[in-house]
Design goal:
This is IS4 family transposase ISPye60. InterPro entries: RNaseH-like_sf (IPR012337), TN5-like_N_sf (IPR038215), Tn5_transposase (IPR054836), Tn5p-like (IPR047768), Transposase_Tn5-like_C (IPR014737), Transposase_Tn5-like_N (IPR014735). The structure is a single chain. Strands 1, 2, 3, 4, 5, 6, 9, 10, 11 and 12 form a ten-stranded mixed sheet that branches. The protein has a two-stranded antiparallel sheet with strand order 7-8. It is of the alpha+beta class. Helix content is about 40%, strand content about 20%. The chain folds into three domains: about 60 residues, Serum Albumin, Chain A, Domain 1; about 300 residues, Transposase Inhibitor Protein From Tn5, Chain A, domain 1, CATH 3.90.350; about 80 residues, no CATH class.
């Protein structure tokens, strides 16, 4: 039974590894071993996860190998994400965002710079300047419209060799006249092209981004790729005949419906907010300095503004821009719900930093850190998927997540509660894992979150090891 469990346990790893494109088959094999070791010791150091010097040294050599890149590590996962995409139907959201992994090093030039800050030191709390170093990552997370993460479709890592000095630069150069290829924001366009090509069904893809993605070149790229975008805008662009802006035209649009959403205050109490919804299709023009390179586009603007804002809380105001059709209040609300899914990628980044503890690594160079974070990306997706699958597909079969041995062990280890005894088998098993991580499963408790899931999976892995040793000893 132990041998069967060990063979089955590698099933989900194999799906993420089998299509990997390494220069050497031995590197692919070592990647599979490292992925499994870091999953078993998620949140721990590499020596803790590997347990012996030979395995630890092999992991360090893999991460520092010049023939290994983050694209090699993630290539198999990208193909697995595409497979999960093809197994679904309907529109799929591709959430883009950038995050920074910060480190403290004596030689920050080996990693790269992210900025400068001041920290209080000494008994008087005097501020001391501190140079921050780190790695930046721009990722595209594929999510269903119900919120189930299917995996990553594109990832870009980079570092800064020097401070950009953008404030001083703007005194001499109009940033709108700098080619997009020379800006860091070009990653938005690269990820859109890579993810659209990977999934190979552009009409099902909706690329979602925050205000940082309000880039006219991004809109034109989506138009060229015949795909869709939904971004929160921060620029009041020229519209119509060029004699007025989007804001001026939206002021003339009447309220076309109301939408009530439930919010939680600082103490967790539920409140209702009423949003006034306006939407209008219009001609949006490129910036003046780019009108000779980019065409005008027919886009739809959606404004959601909260009425009767209570004191002590900032009102909700979303201004969205999209090339999706919006012809009714229901379609406008649908786009608002899709944009609200953007927070999923923030949760993914939280798992990377809090669950995998990517910022605790002591690796010394940017390339090694990027390779390690790439491995963590696969583990973080898996934890996120485990958390969301019980909410999005509670009726799925348990063997889509667990092996038969794991199901048997959970049945023996964690007794059913009266509240969960009648739940679907998959949901019941996932709650058992969460209970190992500290989830109480009370009637008033929300569904288990990522923190209790990764704690529960850590503990469950240790228990499985002891279970295997006991089986081997007893023959």
């Amino acid at each position: 039974m132990a041998g069967k469990r060990q063979a089955d346990e590698r099933a989900w790893f194999e799906k993420e590894v089998e299509a990997s494109e390494f220069q050497d088959a031995r590197l692919r094999k070592r990647f599979g071993v490292v992925l499994e070791q870091l999953w078993s010791g998620m949140g721990q150091t590499i020596p803790f996860a590997c347990q012996d010097w030979a395995s630890t040294k092999a992991a360090y050599r893999f991460l520092s190998n010049d023939r290994v890149s983050e694209q090699d590590i993630l290539s198999g996962h990208f193909q697995a994400s595409a497979g999960r995409f093809k197994a679904t139907q309907g529109p799929i959201l591709i959430l883009q965002d950038t995050t920074t992994f910060s480190y403290q090093r004596e030689r920050p030039e080996l990693i790269g710079y992210t900025g400068k800050t001041s920290v209080p030191r000494g008994k008087h709390g005097l501020l001391t300047p501190l140079t921050q170093c780190g790695v930046l990552m721009h990722s595209s997370l594929v999510v269903t419209s119900e919120g189930l993460p299917l995996g990553l479709a594109a990832v870009k890592f980079w570092t800064r060799s020097r401070f950009k000095g953008t404030t001083a630069l703007k005194r001499h150069i109009n940033p709108t006249r700098v080619p997009i290829e020379e800006k860091e924001s070009y990653r938005w366009l690269e990820n859109m092209r890579q993810s659209t090509a990977l999934l190979d069904d552009p009409v099902r893809c909706i690329h979602v981004g925050d205000r940082e993605s309000d880039i006219y070149e991004l809109f034109c790229t989506a138009h060229d790729l015949c795909t869709y975008f939904l971004v929160r805008t921060c620029v009041d662009r020229l519209a119509g005949d060029g004699q007025h802006t989007i804001a001026h035209e939206m002021e003339q649009v009447k309220v076309k419906g109301l939408h009530r959403v439930e919010l939680r205050d600082a103490k967790g109490r539920a409140t209702l907010a009423t949003l006034e919804i306006r939407y209008q299709q219009m001609t949006v023009l490129p910036p003046i300095g780019k009108q000779d390179r980019y065409p005008a586009l027919q886009l739809t603007v959606i404004h959601a503004h909260e009425r009767d804002v209570p004191p002590g809380r900032a009102g909700i105001e979303w201004k969205l821009l999209t090339n999706l059709p919006v012809r009714s209040r229901a379609q406008a609300i649908e786009k608002l719900d899709w944009y609200a899914m953007r927070w999923k990628i923030e949760t993914f980044h939280k798992i990377l930093k809090s669950g995998c503890k990517a910022e605790d690594s002591k690796l010394r160079t940017a390339d090694r850190l990027a390779n390690l974070i790439s491995v963590f990306c696969i583990l973080s997706w898996r934890i996120f998927w485990l958390t969301m699958v019980s909410r999005c597909a509670p009726q799925a079969a348990p063997d889509t997540v667990f092996t038969s041995t794991e199901i048997e062990l959970l049945e023996r280890l964690v007794p059913d509660l009266p509240l969960t005894a009648q739940a679907p088998p998959l949901l019941r098993n996932l709650i058992k894992v969460a209970r190992l991580g500290g989830y109480l499963a009370r009637a008033s408790d929300p569904p288990p979150g990522n923190t209790v899931m990764w704690r529960g999976m850590q503990r469950f892995t240790d228990i499985q090891l002891g279970y295997e040793l006991a089986l081997n000893r007893s023959g």
